[in-house]
Amino acid sequence: MLHVFDAAHFAKKLKTKRIIELSINLRSAAKKIGISASTLSRLENNKMPEIDTFLKICNWLNELPREFIVTPHEAKYNKKSLTNLSKSIKK
Q1: Among 42, 50, 51, 55, which has the highest number of CB atoms less than 10 A from its own CB?
Q2: Measured between alpha carbons, how far is 57 from 91 in angstroms, rounded to an integer?
Q3: From CA 75, how far away is CA 91, in angstroms rounded?
Q4: Are β-strands 69-70 and 4-5 bridged in parallel, bridged antiparallel, or unpaired?
């Protein structure tokens, strides 16, 4: 069975923890994770992380990496959920 990295789900988890749970800005979160703010911004916009960055963020999120490895169907579903989250954050 084919599996893919679910960038939308990953971005959703990042934004949820940073904005909703911790109420911190991008730079503060990036510093806590140990990555640059520009890298965090790219990842919050559904870009693919480098493996070491991915693992750092999984640790920060307290999630297993397999949480973000899904079937293509699941990835498509999660992308729709991220769109709805982004709309609610902007309000």
Answers
A1: 42
A2: 27
A3: 25
A4: antiparallel
**What is the distance between the alpha carbons of residues 81 and 36, in angstroms, rounded to a whole number?**
26
DSSP line for 15-52: HIIIIIIS---HHHHHHHHTS-HHHHHHHHTTPPPPHH
Scanning the structure block, which residue is given the tokens 């480098």? Answer: 50
Nearest-CA neighbor of 13 among 57, 49, 56, 52?
57
Residue type, 54: F
Tens place of pLDDT per residue across the chain (91 aa): 799 999 999 999 999 999 999 999 999 999 999 999 999 999 999 999 999 999 999 999 999 999 999 988 887 766 555 555 455 555 4
Token pair for 33:
């994770």
